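Suppose a colleague, Dr. K., hands you the sequence of a protein chain of 246 amino acids and asks what its three-dimensional shape might be. Before reaching for any lab equipment, you can write down a predicted structure in C-alpha cell form. Begin with the sequence itself:
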Amino acid sequence: MISANPLSSNLIVGGGGLLFPRFLEPIQQLAKMRSRGKLIAWGIGQQTYGAIDQASIQSFNYSEYLDHFDLVGIRDINSGYNWVPCASCMHSSFDKAREIKHPFVVFSHRKFQIHIDQFPRMTHANDSLDEVLDFLGSGETILTSSYHGAYWGTLLGRKVLAFPFSSKFATFKHQTGLYPVQKWSSSSRKIQLFGKVIYEARQQNQLFCSTENWQAQLKHCSTYPASLEECRERNQWFYNQVLNCL
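The predicted structure, expressed as C-alpha cells, is then:
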C-alpha cells in the first residue's frame, strides 16, 4: 500500500519478481509521489507466467518500470542494467559445510508442486532458512519449482533441475537445468458411478505439472563453485554504489 503523502526520504525497493504488470502502476506511483530523496531498486526482476518464451524474455520492457529510479540493480542477467542477484546470498548460513546424503531432493514452491515421491521433499513454506539450506545441501541434485530453491541450491554448489512456472527461471546468471514444463494445472479426485462422474474435488491453491522423463534433462545441470563468492561480491559492490548515490 502506498501512502497519500509525498515520499520525503530515500527508498530502496527490493523483493523478487516486482517487474510484473500487477506492480507497474504502484512502482510508477512511487516515482510520482517522491518529493526528495533517492529511489533505488535492489535485486528485483521480471516474471511472465506460463511456458518460457525466450523471445519475450529478451524483449521485456524494463524501462517502463525503472526510468524514474536513481540507481538500479536487477537480478536478471543481460537486462541492460547492473546485475545484482538476491541479497540473501549474504547470509552466514551459506558458509556452513553440508554433507550430501541423497542423490536427489525435491523442493517445491507451495503452490507449484512437484510429485516425484521416491525422494525427500520439502516446500518453500518452511520459514527457517537454516533448515531449508540444510535440506537443499543434503541433495547432490535439487529438483525444484522454487526460484529461491534453485538460487540457493546453486550457491551451495549443487546441481539444480528447475521446473519453471514463469520467465524468472531463465534469467539466472548461473543457469540451472530447465524441465520443459508445458502446463501447470490443478489435480482432482473423481468418484464415478457406471462411468459417470458423480463427484469431483479439486485441490485448492496447488498446481501440478508432468514430470515425465525428467531424468533426460539432468545432462543440462551444472555446478558453479564460484557462484556464492561472485554473488556476494556483486552485492557488496552495489552496496557501495548505493552509498555513493545517497
